[in-house]
Amino acid sequence: MLQANSMQIERTVDPTTSPFRSLGVEPFINCGGVRSTFGGSRILPQALKIMNDAAGEFVDLDELALRAGSELATITGAPWGIVTSSTTAAMALATAACIAGHNPERMLRLPDTAGMPNKVVIPRAHRFAYDFVFKTVGAVLIEIGTADELSSALDGSVAMVCLLGRAKAGDGLSNAEAIRIANAKCVPVLVDAAAQTPSYPDQWIAAGADLVVYAGGKFLRGPQSTGFLLGAEHLCRMAWLNGPPHQSFGRAMKVGKEEIIGAIHALRYFLHERDAEAERLEMERHLQTIESHLRLASVRTEVVAASAAWHSPRIRIAWDRDAVDLSGDEVRIEMDLAKPRIHIHDFWSSPNSIVIDPFNFQSGDADIVGSSLARLFLARSGKPRRDSPSHRLDISGQWVVEIDYLHGRVVHELHLEKTGEQIRGAHSSLDSRGDVSGSVAGNHVRLTARHAGHPISVYYSFSGNLSDGVLTGELALGAAADEHYGPVFCSQFGTVRWSARRKTPAPHARANSPGSVKDGD
Predict the structure, then answer these.
(1) Are 461 and 373 in a shared domain?
(2) Is residue 283 part of a domain?
(3) SS3 assignment, position 442
């Protein structure tokens, strides 16, 4: 029998006295892994204790950073390191170090980088949703594809090369080749490995990278807001000086003394003290418990083993839509309405499947998840598929859309055409034009506008009803990379009210072009 380890012990919070309920926020069982939007991971109890111990004492943060840098070198095998307020902050401070260095006049000018080597080069296949952070420092982002393009780009104006650790080689340019070319031209290489876990010795530093970034509050189970920047000592020290507590570019990216000490402890535990095999077996037992509840006709389960990119084992649950009248999104919604609430990852869902990640499970969670899913599948089994309501309403044409943001009103346009049972068309915003797809059921309209961007696209999700010739309803605002497409990111900027009327310009009036929009009052 395995002994209890820090991965699986009794609940750390009494569900009847949750501090979040005092604010009217209902906690949920997290089946979605270590997603930041929902709190990352359960902090390691030992890290939490050392943070509580540190909270009552005071230290000089620069002195702490110097000692922490040496300790991180011992823990990871990297030359040095710092704890930051997030991985995004780590990337920003690394960029500041590579552009402004330790020159106080340049440090205080950021994000004005005129006259400095200010380009960050990134392979096209490595673009990711958070690389906008380089621009906040004042960097100019340059995409390249091939080894020749990378070599040509490194002309003295480049401050740094960025690689995405989990990305596959594109255009024949491998990570090893990119690092070799940058090393030959003495240009620092930063690897974003936030979605990965560190090793000892660090694989990226050993491969020749100058800097690497890891998340502290995900698989490491340190403070959720922390990140690590590891690598060349002079670059890490300059990154620290460009950040808090100093009066420099990164002052807003504050990291507390408690977070620094807690993150270091979590990293040491992850690399040198934990029982990884016991943790894996515990997670697999959770998945077996869920499977035991789902031995149902028309429901299939498959356990997917952990991998370098997929840290914990997960279970894929699929069903026959002809026998179980549910979509993956409907399962997610129903589970979020359950008591207790259960959160299932949105962009892992499909029309007839969901994925459960047990990494954040506590005692009893697997039984609750499995039994709740079984009840839902049984309740919706053996019933005929619900037919879609008739689509009688034709909203083809041009519509003037008024959107009430939290501050101010704007005017957009929709150009819609009915194609069979579906709606297609275009959406013109203040700054761009996107493709629209959607449907009409009775007098209810659902439309999604995608304004394509690389690596992240903007989404407008319209939901509303037609009454007296006017469409009114709720509009969800968001943005998502293709790999992260799902309701959560596509509505991450909140919801607002919208209304639309058919466009009927006066005779002889100059018609607006499809992209012509104006600010409202």
Answers:
(1) no
(2) yes
(3) coil
Domain total for the chain? 3
Judging by DSSP bridges, how do beta strands 189-192 and 211-215 pair with one another?
parallel
Global pTM exceeds 0.70: yes
Per the CB < 8 A criterion, the answer to whether 33 and 345 are in contact is yes
- Whether the CA torsion 181, 208, 270, 288 is positive or negative: it is positive
Distance CA 177, CA 460 (A): 40
Q: How far apart are CA 324 and CA 47, in angstroms?
A: 44
> In this structure, what token pair is assigned to residue 336?
């979020």
**CATH code of residue 360:** 3.90.1150.180
Looking at the fold, whether 269 and 280 belong to one and the same domain comes out as: no
Residue 87: which CATH number? Answer: 3.40.640.10
Each residue of 36-91: pLDDT tens digit?
Answer: 999 999 999 999 999 999 999 999 999 999 999 999 999 999 999 999 999 999 99
Q: How many CA atoms lie within 13 A of 272 on its CB side?
A: 13
Which residues, listed in sequence order, are joined to residue 285 by a DSSP beta bridge? none
Is residue 10 in a domain?
A: no
Which residues of the chain carry a pLDDT beneath 70?
1-16, 169-171, 308-309, 383-392, 504-521
Other C-beta atoms lying within 10 Å of the C-beta of residue 18: 13
Q: What is the DSSP string of 169-206?
A: PBTTB-HHHHHHHHHHTT--EEEE-TTS---SS-HHHH
Task: Give tens-digit pLDDT for 203-258.
Answer: 999 999 999 999 999 999 999 999 999 999 999 999 999 999 999 999 999 999 99
